[in-house]
């Protein structure tokens, strides 16, 4: 049998990728079901093989292994430096002009740790590598009659984007009280007009524009 292994993976629906492999040589089972979980971004996929030609080569629908390697959890104090670096990466070249510095990020992390009702810091742990982070803040809305969870900052390193991890986070926050202590009545976030892909993702998850525009009076110099 001729071994064929293609690594030019093609995205399908943002979460699943295709490859062509020689199923028999790799010892693949004819059908495998991957469990749905927040670690995989809520992907429940069937891995299957279909014979092509004389049966030597098979088309396989499979999950890229890194999709299985991501768990959102609370950040730890020893990870502050890495989180600060990702926060600066989120803003890129604009960080300095906006006054966002490592010391300011560390001050935010310290405040959240001392006063957890103000907010929480989550990280995406991918087999020991911190692949992303999220800053969550809280306020009580009289209009909505409960606590609103604000996704203040959300960042994923490039290799982990498009893998369903942001979707997994939003879904987990709805019910996982280890990530957010109280059931929120709503989520809020900001999205840049320069990032249409992120907007489409959030709209798919059910986010929509608020009726009233948000205004801000900055009291910092």
Give a written overview of the molecule:
The protein has 221 residues and is of the alpha+beta class. Helices cover 24% and strands 29% of the residues. The protein contains six helices and ten strands; from the N terminus they run ββαββββαααβββαβα. The chain has helices at 23-26, 80-91, 94-97, 102-114, 165-175, 196-204, and strands at 10-12, 16-21, 31-33, 46-52, 57-62, 71-74, 119-126, 129-141, 146-156, 186-189. It has a five-stranded antiparallel sheet with strand order 1-2-5-4-3. A five-stranded mixed sheet has the order 6-7-8-9-10, with helices on both faces. A hairpin with a 3-residue loop joins β1 and β2. The protein is globular, with a radius of gyration of 21 Å. Residues 1-63 have low confidence and may be disordered.
What keyword list fits this structure?
221 residues; five-stranded antiparallel sheet; 10 strands
Shape descriptor reads: globular
Strand content: 25-35%
Q: Strand order within the widest sheet? A: 1-2-5-4-3
Low-pLDDT windows of residues: 1-63
Total count of helical runs of at least 4 residues = 6
Please give the share of residues in helix.
10-25%
Structural class: alpha+beta
Largest sheet: 5 strands, antiparallel
- Separation of termini? 71 Å
Task: Provide the residue-averaged pLDDT.
Answer: 76
Question: What assembly state would you assign to the polypeptide chains in this entry?
Answer: single chain
The string of secondary-structure elements, in order, is EEHEEEEHHHEEEHEH
**Would you report the number of β strands?**
10
Rg over CA atoms, rounded to whole Å, is 21 Å
